[in-house]
């Protein structure tokens, strides 16, 4: 099912997308668990253009996180395909290379490594790509400066507030210059002040870098703030 | 700019080290396990090899070219009367029948005891420091200077061996620990003590000078074949070969390798257990790394790097512990006569290679398991 012009090796590094067009396309996505007894997605078709900011909302268990995982190459669909720039994930595009070069993930639980300092947590994403240790450290420090964490970069996650931890996680997501920013309930563990600041940072990054951003959220104000809002229920797209 | 300069750099090996260090006690206990394994290997195998080397040196310094022993038996026992048949072989210059055994001299001191004839050419290689040589048929012994020092004996003193009182008639200097730490008594007395009247353990043969044009090795092989032909049921070993296969050396090698293998296995299982536990505990972290784009091979490399680091550091500590153990054994009176503290550089390199290979072996399964984790499943792991 891969497109004729697809490549199977590492794909080109991300960057600002100038021409609008489909960057991600899902066709007939089905994801089932427990030998088919639980269906998280029941045939989802979605097309996301380059540079778009899309919010996905829905009740708990509706399949919104599962859809994000499939779009980000974290998981494989039971049926259906996901295409990145016309090439099918998992066959024409290596999932590991896709995640390391094209996708930046942000999670609700931050998922920072507790034994690493903030600046090291950002660098750990870059260990999977070929870059010198000096460059890695400098880039991580720059990203943390952009997140307003210049003086917290040598702190461990346990020494940071929840908002600071999420900003470290955002810096880590940007470490390899991805094309796509995928956030799964990024404000779920934050108070209202930090939620607002996090969303402000994410919006700023998207506009500044021309990235495509997909945010899974159950918060209406965040969902409505996005130019495009996809509602999902019982594994199907409602609107 | 200063903040960038001060940002700590994270390398792959640094990350592996941090992972090990987060569980200090477990890491240290694992290191103790591999240290003991490598320490045992360095000390025991090092000892057995040094022991073999000492035998070779002793054969060389005594001028022994061939050792004739009974074939197919670990404990050799040959008729002493066969010496005449060996002497009749054209290339043979001298034949020295002998018995050797490891005996308790005191509850604390063990020593090699040799039974030689008073006219054995092997006595000529020893330097007599005091007293005189023994006579056949008498309860007289010579003591090596190392053993005499350990026992506090001098010429003229009495020494009880296996219930028989012997007079120390001389102290000699031996160039090897096997001589310097030994007792030499008349062959006939040794035969009585060992219950081997009329029998010997081996004949030590000295050949005539090799004829011009023949290499020494070829000459010795030819003479060995001629002796075996003259004495069916015996084996004639060139000295170098005999140093490696005499009963005590074979026993020392077997014990050393057997004990080391068990100790190493325990060390390897320790690393494997630590790495398996570590992968299990870090399931979610591995999921995070996979989500960040780490390939399965990166996860394998990380876990193998951690296991190899354990092996490498354990290897270095084991070498230090093993060498220290050898030094201790070589200083104790009970073992000084048979233990040399020397360890060859090759043996140390070999030990380190085994340590690192142990780490790789022990880390292989946990690494494979870690690499197979599905990113999303690992992230969900509580």
Tell me what the structure shows.
The complex is a heterodimer of chains A (239) and B (382). Chain A is of the alpha/beta class. Chain A has 7 helices and 10 strands. Chain A has a 6-stranded mixed beta sheet. In chain A, strands 2-1-4-5 form a 4-stranded antiparallel beta sheet, covered by helices on one side. In chain A, β7 (180-184), α6 (192-209) and β8 (212-217) form a beta-alpha-beta unit. In chain A, α3 (118-126) packs parallel to α5 (162-173) and α4 packs across α5. Chain A is globular. Chain A starts with 21 loop residues before the first strand and ends with a strand. The model of chain A is unreliable at 1-19 (pLDDT under 50). Chain B is α+β, with helices and mostly antiparallel strands and 382 residues long. Chain B folds into 2 domains: 12-52 and 250-380, no CATH class; 73-232, no CATH class. Helices cover 56% and strands 18% of the residues of chain B. Chain B is built from 14 helices and 12 strands. In chain B, the strands form 2 sheets. In chain B, strands 1, 3, 4, 5, 6, 7, 8, 9, 11 and 12 form a 10-stranded mixed beta sheet that branches. In chain B, a hairpin with a 2-residue loop joins β7 and β8. The longest helix of chain B is centred in the N-terminal third of the chain and has 39 residues, at 24-62. Chain B is elongated, with a radius of gyration of 29 Å. The mean pLDDT of chain B is 88. Classes of the chains: A alpha/beta (239), B alpha+beta (382). The A-B interface holds A 69, 72, 74-75, 96-101, 103, 105, 107, 111, 113, 115-117, 119-120, 123-125, 127-129, 133-134, 136-138, 140-142, 144-145, 150-151, 153-154, 172, 176 and B 3-4, 6-12, 15, 18-19, 21-22, 284-285, 288-296, 298, 374-376, 379.
Write the layout of secondary structure elements.
The complex is a heterodimer of chains A (239) and B (382).
Chain A: E1 22-33, E2 38-49, E3 53-57, H1 64-71, E4 79-84, E5 87-88, H2 95-101, E6 103-107, H3 118-126, H4 133-146, H5 162-173, E7 180-184, H6 192-209, E8 212-217, H7 220-225, E9 228-233, E10 236-237
Parallel strand pairs in A: 3-8, 3-9, 6-7, 7-8
Antiparallel strand pairs in A: 1-2, 1-4, 4-5, 9-10
Chain B: H1 2-6, H2 12-21, H3 24-62, E1 66-70, E2 78-79, H4 83-87, E3 92-104, E4 110-116, E5 127-131, E6 140-144, H5 145-151, E7 158-161, E8 164-173, H6 177-180, E9 182-186, H7 187-194, E10 199-200, E11 202-207, H8 216-230, E12 234-238, H9 239-245, H10 247-281, H11 283-291, H12 296-331, H13 345-372, H14 375-380
Helix pairs in contact in B: 2-12, 3-9, 3-10, 3-12, 3-13, 10-12, 10-13, 12-13
């Amino acid at each position: 099912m891969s497109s004729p012009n697809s490549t199977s090796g590492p794909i080109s590094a991300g960057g600002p997308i100038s021409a609008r067009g489909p960057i991600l396309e899902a066709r007939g996505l089905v994801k089932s668990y427990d030998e088919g007894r639980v269906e998280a997605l029941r045939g989802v078709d979605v097309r996301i253009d380059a540079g778009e900011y899309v919010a996905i909302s829905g009740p708990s268990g509706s399949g919104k996180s599962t859809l994000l995982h499939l779009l980000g190459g974290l998981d494989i669909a039971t049926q259906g395909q996901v295409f990145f720039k016309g090439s099918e994930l998992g066959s024409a595009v290596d999932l590991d290379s896709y995640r390391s070069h094209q996708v930046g993930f942000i999670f609700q639980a931050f998922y920072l490594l507790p034994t690493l300092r903030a600046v090291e947590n950002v660098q750990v994403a870059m260990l999977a790509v070929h870059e010198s240790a000096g460059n890695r450290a400098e880039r991580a420090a720059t990203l943390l400066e952009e997140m307003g964490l210049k003086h917290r970069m040598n702190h461990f996650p346990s020494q940071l507030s929840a908002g600071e931890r999420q900003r470290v996680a955002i810096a880590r997501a940007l470490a390899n210059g991805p094309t796509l920013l995928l956030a799964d309930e990024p404000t779920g563990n934050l108070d209202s002040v930090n939620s607002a600041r996090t969303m402000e940072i994410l919006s700023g990054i998207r506009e500044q870098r021309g990235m495509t951003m997909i945010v899974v959220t159950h918060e209406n104000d965040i969902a409505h703030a996005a130019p495009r809002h996809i509602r999902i229920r019982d594994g199907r797209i409602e609107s | 700019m200063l903040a960038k300069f001060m940002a700590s750099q994270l390398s792959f090996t640094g990350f592996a080290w941090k992972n090990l260090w987060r569980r200090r006690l477990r890491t240290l206990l694992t290191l103790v396990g591999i240290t003991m394994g490598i320490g045992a290997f360095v000390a025991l195998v090092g000892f057995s090899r040094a022991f073999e080397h000492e035998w070779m040196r002793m054969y060389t310094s005594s001028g022994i070219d061939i050792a004739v022993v009974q074939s197919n038996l670990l404990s050799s026992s040959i008729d002493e009367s066969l010496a005449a048949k060996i002497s009749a072989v054209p290339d043979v210059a001298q034949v020295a029948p002998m018995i050797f055994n490891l005996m308790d001299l005191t509850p604390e001191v063990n020593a090699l005891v040799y039974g030689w004839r008073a006219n054995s050419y092997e006595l000529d290689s020893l330097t007599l420091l005091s007293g005189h040589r023994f006579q056949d048929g008498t309860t007289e012994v010579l003591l090596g200077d190392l053993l005499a020092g350990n026992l506090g004996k001098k010429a003229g003193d009495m020494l009880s061996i296996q219930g028989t009182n012997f007079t120390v008639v001389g102290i000699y200097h031996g160039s090897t620990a096997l001589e310097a730490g030994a007792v030499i008594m008349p062959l006939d007395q040794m035969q009585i003590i060992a219950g081997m009247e009329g029998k010997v353990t081996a004949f030590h043969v000295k050949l005539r000078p090799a004829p011009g044009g023949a290499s020494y090795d070829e000459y010795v092989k030819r003479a060995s074949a001629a002796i075996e032909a003259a004495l069916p049921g015996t084996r004639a070993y060139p000295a170098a070969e005999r140093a490696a296969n005499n009963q005590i050396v074979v026993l020392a090698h077997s014990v050393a390798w057997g004990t080391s293998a068990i100790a190493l296995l325990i060390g390897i299982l320790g690393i494997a257990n630590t790495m398996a536990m570590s992968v299990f505990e870090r399931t979610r972290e591995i999921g995070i790394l996979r989500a960040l784009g780490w390939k399965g091979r990166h996860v394998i490399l990380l876990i193998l790097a951690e296991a190899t680091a354990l092996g490498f550091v354990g290897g270095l500590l084991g070498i230090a512990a093993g060498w220290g153990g050898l030094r201790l054994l070589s200083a104790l009176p009970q073992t000084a006569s048979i233990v040399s503290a020397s360890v060859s550089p090759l043996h140390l390199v070999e030990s380190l290679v085994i340590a690192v290979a142990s780490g790789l072996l022990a880390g292989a399964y946990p690494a494979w398991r870690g690499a197979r984790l599905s990113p999303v499943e690992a992230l969900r792991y509580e």
